[in-house]
Amino acid sequence: MHKKGLLGQLIQNLCCLPGVGPKTAQRMAFYLLQRDRNGARNLAETVLQAIDKIGHCEQCRTLTEYPFCEICADSSRDDSLICIVESPADVWIVDQATQFKGCYFVLHGRLSPLDGIGPDELGLDLLEQRLATGSVKELILATNSTVEGEATAYFIGEIAKKYQVQASRIAHGVPMGGELEFIDSGTLSHAFKGRKEI
Prior knowledge:
Elements: H1 5-14, H2 22-35, H3 37-53, E1 55-56, E2 63-64, H4 70-73, E3 78-85, H5 88-97, E4 102-106, H6 124-132, E5 138-141, H7 147-162, E6 166-169, H8 185-193
Parallel strand pairs: 3-4, 3-5, 5-6
Antiparallel strand pairs: 1-2
């Protein structure tokens, strides 16, 4: 049952967040209104500012409020090394978890012909323009290991060959600390195919 009024609207609108169902939205709404109205006001103002001011980096297409994001504007980064990712969230994850000192290119999705997502929707024409300059030496393909992610990585690898740019794929397989009996057969098969000499 949907409650009417501002409280009901607030609860309903909080449900748009990923992983937030009606009960969680209700707890959030009551917390903000009962215990942290200043926090709620700051949150609302920040969300409005973000919506108005955050766009895409002209070079890598990640989210930023400037023409070029902090990474692309950082002259200490190696712009001959580009990591291809599916979303701006992936940029944050890779940058926090690794010591990668190159640049990025954000696809905002993956090839999915059934959903009408082709090379043009992923900005691959922009990537090709960068490769055509001759300044890029290697692409690191860090798309997800889904069927669409693998197809996207393969497609980009073919573009890289056209410009004599080395393309490598991030490893997939058994996670650190993982036990073989709990690993699914597809992951284990992929790990065996990607094994390397020690």
